[in-house]
Design brief:
Layout lengths: L12 H19 E3 L6 H24 L8 H23 L1 H5 L4 E3 L1 H21 L5 H24 L4 H6 L1 H16 L5 H6 L4 H23 L5 H29 L7 H7 L2 H5 L10 H13 L4 H12 L7 H26 L5 H30 L23 H6 L1
Parallel strand pairs: 1-2
Length: 416
């Protein structure tokens, strides 16, 4: 039976990825150049440190976070690395596209690589919703589609004078609903053998916890990366730490509360302890008191209580199998953070007696709505594209199985 064997991607993956990489090299040759202007040494050190933090978050944090799957750990980590490497190159070119229209070359700077890394992280978030049910060819196509859609969303945001930091912080909402829409398009009934492999075990969960810890430690750098006023940047770091701390305490406590025997669910810890950093992202630089950030962290951590019913609703009612729970890890906290930002900006406008209060409220609401709408629309388009048979998607019997993509020794098979 054909279902016993994984579908080989030898005929399309090397040709597709090597051709794509060659095209990117040619594009960088003709259309890019390095920034050769003199820079302050202290500024360069700070920018380099932030870039390093973002890379650690993406490669180690978002790479190891979904690695708790029983027989899909290799693919979870390595596929994330390839998507990040490809996505950063693609995002650098797309971010500089307006300069290409004016016959100028794209100047590569540390801030441009920072933005490209943050844009590429959107794919790593979305991939959690379809992890284990796609091959690497489909994920490469998804990188091209999603990064292009996210950059387009940010360009539209700039046209409407949305804040650059806020449009980037909406990456969580955009990526979550993009991934959920792709998952809905690719959803199919899994055989019992595949369902049994879609579970977590102790050792892989420790690696996933490692990813959670990396994200937890470096999230303040992510939230403050595009904030350049020293006071606002310091405020953003403080508020992110407070929100993360409270969401961690809340998530672990509520996880024990909702369990019939009062036990803590490691999946809740992986996901919900990060919710505070997501929820405070958009407004971290304008929150004047730590208690507000702590309340946001508390509300975001409480989302873990609805994790089980959300999964049931998505699986049986909407037909969406959200493998790594990106909806309640990034989507719902991102919506909470977007709503909090709308409320805070509106309050500031009222307090300062700004006659443009309604304009401020509509503008901030539009930024959040744009992220959700673009995520859903581009996710639907990408999901329909990934349904095509030319990508040689894995058979449902080979879902959540490293053996479908990796050379696995007999010893490893015995251990699994």
């Amino acid at each position: 039976m054909s279902s016993k064997y994984p579908r080989s991607v030898r005929g399309c993956l090397p040709l597709w990825t090597l051709t794509l990489e060659g095209a990117l090299i040619v594009a960088f040759f003709f259309f890019t150049e390095y920034d050769i202007s003199p820079n302050n040494h202290k500024t360069m050190v700070i920018l380099g440190a932030v870039l390093q933090d973002l890379t650690v978050m993406a490669a180690l944090g978002l790479g190891f976070l979904p690695s708790a799957l029983w027989r899909f750990g290799w693919s979870s980590v390595a596929f994330a690395l390839l998507m990040l490497a490809l996505g950063v190159q693609w995002a650098v070119l797309l971010d500089g596209f307006p300069k290409l229209l004016s016959s100028e070359k794209v100047v590569i700077t540390l801030p441009s690589i920072q933005k490209a890394t943050m844009s590429a992280m959107s794919v790593l978030i979305s991939a959690g919703a379809i992890l284990g049910k796609t091959n690497l060819v489909q994920l490469v196509v998804m990188v091209l589609m999603e990064v292009a859609a996210f950059v387009a969303m940010r360009v539209i945001s700039h046209l409407f004078l949305f804040d650059d930091h806020v449009s980037m912080m909406h990456v969580h909402v955009f990526a979550a609903y993009f991934g959920l829409m792709v998952a809905r398009c690719l959803s199919r009934r899994m055989p019992k053998a595949a369902e049994e492999k879609n579970r977590r075990t102790t050792s892989p969960s420790l690696f996933a916890m490692l990813g959670t810890l990396f994200l937890w430690m470096f999230w303040p750098s992510f939230n403050s990366a595009l904030i350049f006023m020293p006071l606002e940047r310091k405020t953003a770091v403080f508020n992110t730490y407070y929100a993360l701390a409270v969401s961690t305490v809340t998530a672990i406590s509520v996880s024990a509360l909702v369990h019939p025997q009062g036990k803590i669910n490691m999946n809740h810890v992986h996901n919900a302890v990060l919710a505070g950093g997501v929820a405070v992202g958009a407004s971290c630089h304008i929150i004047a008191s730590p208690w507000i950030a702590m309340v946001l962290g508390l509300l975001a951590g409480l989302i873990v209580g609805g994790a089980k019913c959300l999964q049931v609703c998505f699986n049986h009612v909407l037909g969406i199998d959200d493998t790594c729970g990106v909806h309640y890890t990034f989507g719902l906290p991102g919506l909470l953070g977007g709503i909090a930002y709308i409320g805070l900006m509106t309050y500031q406008a009222i307090w300062s007696k700004d006659p443009m209060v309604t304009h401020v409220a509509l503008l901030t609401t539009g930024a959040l709505s744009l992220a959700v709408a673009m995520g859903l629309a581009s996710g639907l388009l990408t999901g329909l594209l990934l349904q095509l048979k030319i990508w040689r998607a894995p058979h449902a019997a080979k879902y959540f199985d490293d053996q479908a993509f990796w050379e696995v020794s007999f010893f490893n098979l015995l251990m699994s």
